[in-house]
Design a protein that fits this description.
By secondary structure, the protein is of the alpha+beta class. It is built from seven helices and nine strands, in the order ααββαβββββββαααα. The chain has two domains: about 150 residues, Roll (Nuclear Transport Factor 2, Chain: A), CATH 3.10.450; about 80 residues, Serine Threonine Protein Phosphatase 5, Tetratricopeptide repeat (Alpha Horseshoe).
């Protein structure tokens, strides 16, 4: 009886070991398959990103928009939500203002998480271009940014569905770092999230407490006004330009 129990015990232990090995092998195989799938998706998406950079250099609008999925949206650091049409207008402006794009410009995938036909990636982008300076002479501009992006696999391959801007690196113009208006970004975010009236009220309240308070740089609000015009929000743009004039009455650019 003891020998039978011993045999059964040994058999049971062997069965557990066998099952454990099989489960471990299955898990390793599944992990390997997932890893291979992610590697494949990463290669394909990276190829799309590389093609987009090349299209940027050539100022090829069709190729730049080819990687967008239907219903594409994006969210900038200051809260602005952009559509494919907004991107197209932005690209048109880039094509007019940029003299050339450097080979140093690149977009790199830092991480990827695959979920069926969707992939969430984090990317780092460096954008180096030459534009006309204030004096009309060519000047180099360097910027960098990180994104969280959602890509979907379609019949046309991997396409980007959503982009969220996470962080902006320093901006260098002619090798000189341009101070970033982080306080201004917060103010602009109020406009996008809560409306122009709320932003105006925030400005008036702050000015009552401190008449010299600076909530944004002149250029930040001026740029916001033109972005509102691009979106067809002319009345809001006029309110923003007037607010900028109130904040900077001595600046000719606000009139």
């Amino acid at each position: 009886m003891k020998r039978l129990l011993l045999f059964l015990t040994i058999t049971f232990l062997c069965l557990n070991i066998t099952v454990g090995v099989r489960e471990s092998s299955a898990q390793n195989a599944a992990g390997s398959t997932t890893s291979q799938s992610e590697d494949e998706a990463k290669r394909e998406i990276q190829a799309r990103l590389d093609a987009s950079v090349e299209a940027m250099k050539k100022k090829d609008m069709t190729a730049r928009l080819a990687g967008l999925a239907p219903g594409f949206t994006g969210k900038l650091k200051d809260g602005d939500v952009v559509t494919a049409k907004d991107l197209e207008r932005s690209f048109e402006q880039q094509h007019r203002s940029i003299i050339s794009t450097s080979d140093e410009t690149r977009t790199v995938i830092d991480s990827i998480k695959l979920n069926g036909n969707e992939a969430t990636i984090h990317i780092s982008q460096r954008f180096v271009r030459t534009v006309p300076g204030n004096d009309g002479k060519p000047v180099e501009v360097r910027t960098s940014v990180t994104h969280r992006e959602l890509w979907v696999k379609t019949e046309r391959g991997w396409l980007v569905k959503y982009i969220e801007e996470l962080e902006q690196g320093p901006t260098l113009v002619g090798g000189v770092e341009v101070p970033q208006d982080r306080a201004g970004w917060k103010f602009v975010k109020i406009v996008w999230d809560e409306g122009v009236e709320r932003a105006q009220a925030t400005f008036e309240k702050a000015r009552k407490k401190d008449s010299q308070v600076v909530l944004f740089q002149e250029a930040t609000l001026n740029n916001l006004g033109y972005r509102l015009i691009q979106k067809g929000r002319m009345k809001d743009a006029i309110k923003i330009f007037r607010l900028n004039t109130k904040a900077y009455p001595q600046a000719a650019n606000t009139y």
